[in-house]
Each structure stands twice: as structure tokens, then as C-alpha cells.
Amino acid sequence: MPSYVLSDRCDGCQGREPVCAQICPSDIMTLDPEHNRAFNREPDACWECYSCVKSCPQQAVEVSACADVVPLGGRVFPQCDEDSVTWSVQLRNGVNKQFTYPTRTIAEGAIAPYAGKPQADLSKIDQAGFFTTVGKLPTP
Ligand code: SF4
Ligand code: SF4
């Protein structure tokens, strides 16, 4: 189910580095400079990771749904919120289904990655164990 870009929604990230191109681990999302629209230049090499689908600010990227997930002619697309992602599945008979899943367990921006760590002493930057180890390094 490789991704594809809806050209009527894509705005080329308004002149900034396209988000979809930045995030693609397969380096296949790229911008057509002539039309200022992104496209998947190599669908066969798509990892189907959905990173571009979830990160596009215009919701301009969708995936080709195959028969074992969505019947032929259906669509599947996500809506990312601050703490959840909702997948909308549109079946070809007109039935819509939505599935919402949490994407984080703490509030955005609330993480304190250095909490409980000692203050870094830059005068010891060349010493083994700088910052992450308090006291002497254990020896076997
Ligand atoms: S992230 Fe979305 S809006 Fe931006 S270039 Fe890619 S498809 Fe277009
Ligand atoms: S689904 Fe993943 S691998 Fe495929 S184009 Fe999007 S970001 Fe790249």
C-alpha cells in the first residue's frame, strides 16, 4: 500500500523543505519544482511506514488501499491530533469507520529528560563518564 499525494491538497509546504520528504526513510518523497507538488517517485520502494501520511500538515498524502485491508475503491487516511491519531476508513459501499488510538502517555512538552541527572560540569568534559555517571566508573 504505497503512499501517494493528492495534488489538489498539497501546497508544497509553502516553500519550506517538504515535511514528507524530510521524514521519508526511503528518500522517495520529493517535490516537483515545476508544479510545487510532492510525489512518491518510487512506489515500489515504499516501506509503507505511513510517516509521510501522518506528518503532512495538509493531509495531502494517502495510501493505496489493497483488497485485504480495504475493499477495492476504498480510502484510508489519518487525522493526527496532539495525543491521538484517528484513522478513517471509507469503504466503497459508502460505509465510514473510524479508529482512534492514543499516541502519547504524557502531555506534549511535559517530558523532563534530564530530571534526576546531575548538572553537567563542563570542566570535566574530557573525562570518562562525563554527565551520565556520578563518581568513578565501575571496574570489572
Ligand atoms: S508534506 Fe504534504 S503539503 Fe508538504 S509537500 Fe508533502 S504532501 Fe505536500
Ligand atoms: S510511507 Fe514511508 S517509505 Fe513510503 S513514501 Fe511515505 S514516508 Fe516514505
**Percent range for helical residues?**
under 10%
Main β-sheet: number of strands, strand sense, barrel status?
3 strands, antiparallel
Distance between the termini: 51 Å
Q: Which percent band covers the strand fraction?
A: 15-25%
Shape: elongated
CA radius of gyration is: 22 Å
Instruction: Give the SSE order as H and E letters.
Output: EHEEHEEEE
| Arithmetic mean of pLDDT | 85
Number of beta strands? 7
- Total DSSP helices: 2
Biggest sheet, spatial arrangement of strands: 5-6-7
Multimerization status: single chain
- Low-pLDDT stretches are none
Bound molecules: iron/sulfur cluster
Question: Structural class of the secondary structure composition?
Answer: mainly beta
Kindly describe this structure.
With 140 residues, this protein is mainly β. It is 7% helix and 24% strand. It contains 2 helices and 7 strands. The protein has helices spanning 19-23, 51-55, and strands at 3-5, 29-32, 37-40, 61-63, 75-80, 84-90, 96-102. A hairpin with a 4-residue loop joins β2 (29-32) and β3. Bound molecules: iron/sulfur cluster (2 copies).
Quick synopsis:
With 140 residues, this protein is mostly beta strands.
Key words describing this protein structure:
140 residues; mainly beta; 3-stranded antiparallel sheet; two-stranded antiparallel ribbon; 2 helices; elongated; binds iron/sulfur cluster
Question: What are the SSEs and their pairings?
Answer:
Layout: E1 3-5, H1 19-23, E2 29-32, E3 37-40, H2 51-55, E4 61-63, E5 75-80, E6 84-90, E7 96-102
Antiparallel strand pairs: 1-4, 2-3, 5-6, 6-7
The site of one iron/sulfur cluster has 14 residues, from helix 1.
